[in-house]
């Protein structure tokens, strides 16, 4: 039978751990790499409700984007819902792996999926990934390029709502009627990288979790921005499931792969 390690080994050929940003707790999280697997579930986040979904679907292996352990556990008191979630994973022999910034930097990974969703033509890497010696590699986080047709900033915001299936977003712009064509996108919290967008001649920068003062600086520099939130990275659920299914067919793994059906976005618009 196929093991956790079989899938991890193949994935890390696609998105090596060397692509992870410093201090990012990406990679193997909980369980055993030798565990045999039949049912694999992809998810953006590993939350208690996601673990319950996995248990109900007889999942052996959860493959997530966001690490389940951003911060080490200080104790194993099961009164803490996070600790209880760890206990449930172990009790039901569910292994967890997280592909975080290595997936963000990978060619054909997270940021290519996001760029494709908004229709960027021939996207190029935005923030170069550096090797251990500080030299640029052939990988980058974020993408920039030209839209297939120019559109107003406000219409680009509406497009983001449509393609990412969200009920609201935040816009930072001096003129929402400006026609724009050169756009950058970076999944997650990418506000600190806006100077890279300016250097590339970008007119609108799409990224999540923008800070107040960072947004003011963008306006001062004539850069518009769209903040559709962090949850747009949930695009990875179906993309990873499709990729793993293809690999299963190619390698005769005989595993079932499906995407979590839960929405783990903590925010609502009212």
From TrEMBL:
<protein>
    <recommendedName>
        <fullName>GTP cyclohydrolase 1 type 2 homolog</fullName>
    </recommendedName>
</protein>
<dbReference type="GO" id="GO:0005737">
    <property type="term" value="C:cytoplasm"/>
</dbReference>
<keyword id="KW-0479">Metal-binding</keyword>
<dbReference type="InterPro" id="IPR036069">
    <property type="entry name" value="DUF34/NIF3_sf"/>
</dbReference>
<dbReference type="InterPro" id="IPR002678">
    <property type="entry name" value="DUF34/NIF3"/>
</dbReference>
<feature type="binding site">
    <location>
        <position position="233"/>
    </location>
    <ligand>
        <name>a divalent metal cation</name>
    </ligand>
</feature>
<feature type="binding site">
    <location>
        <position position="230"/>
    </location>
    <ligand>
        <name>a divalent metal cation</name>
    </ligand>
</feature>
<feature type="binding site">
    <location>
        <position position="104"/>
    </location>
    <ligand>
        <name>a divalent metal cation</name>
    </ligand>
</feature>
<feature type="binding site">
    <location>
        <position position="65"/>
    </location>
    <ligand>
        <name>a divalent metal cation</name>
    </ligand>
</feature>
<feature type="binding site">
    <location>
        <position position="66"/>
    </location>
    <ligand>
        <name>a divalent metal cation</name>
    </ligand>
</feature>
<dbReference type="GO" id="GO:0046872">
    <property type="term" value="F:metal ion binding"/>
</dbReference>
<comment type="similarity">
    <text>Belongs to the GTP cyclohydrolase I type 2/NIF3 family.</text>
</comment>
<comment type="subunit">
    <text>Homohexamer.</text>
</comment>
<dbReference type="Pfam" id="PF01784">
    <property type="entry name" value="DUF34_NIF3"/>
</dbReference>
């Amino acid at each position: 039978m196929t093991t956790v390690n079989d899938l991890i080994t193949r994935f890390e050929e696609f998105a090596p751990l060397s692509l992870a940003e410093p201090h990012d707790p990406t990679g193997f999280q909980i369980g055993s790499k030798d565990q045999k697997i039949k049912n694999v579930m992809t998810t953006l986040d590993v939350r208690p409700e996601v673990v319950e979904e996995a248990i109900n679907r007889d999942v052996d292996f959860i493959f997530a984007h966001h690490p389940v352990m951003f911060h080490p556990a200080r104790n194993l008191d099961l009164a803490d819902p996070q600790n209880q979630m760890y206990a449930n994973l172990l009790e039901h022999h569910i292994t967890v792996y997280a592909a975080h910034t290595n997936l963000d930097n990978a060619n054909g990974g997270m940021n290519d999926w996001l760029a494709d969703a908004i229709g960027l033509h021939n996207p190029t890497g935005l923030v170069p990934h550096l090797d251990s010696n500080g030299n640029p590699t052939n990988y980058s986080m974020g993408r920039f390029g030209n839209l297939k047709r120019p559109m107003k900033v406000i219409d680009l915001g509406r497009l983001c709502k449509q393609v990412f299936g969200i009920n609201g977003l935040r816009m930072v712009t001096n003129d929402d009627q400006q026609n724009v064509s050169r756009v950058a996108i970076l999944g997650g919290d990418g506000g600190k990288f806006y100077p890279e967008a300016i250097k590339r001649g970008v007119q609108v920068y799409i990224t999540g979790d923008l800070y107040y003062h960072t947004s003011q600086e963008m306006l001062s520099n004539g850069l518009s921005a769209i903040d559709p939130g962090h949850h747009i990275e949930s695009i990875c659920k179906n993309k990873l499931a499709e990729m793993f299914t293809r690999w299963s067919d190619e390698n005769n793994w005989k595993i079932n792969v499906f995407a979590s059906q839960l929405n783990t976005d903590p925010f609502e618009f009212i």
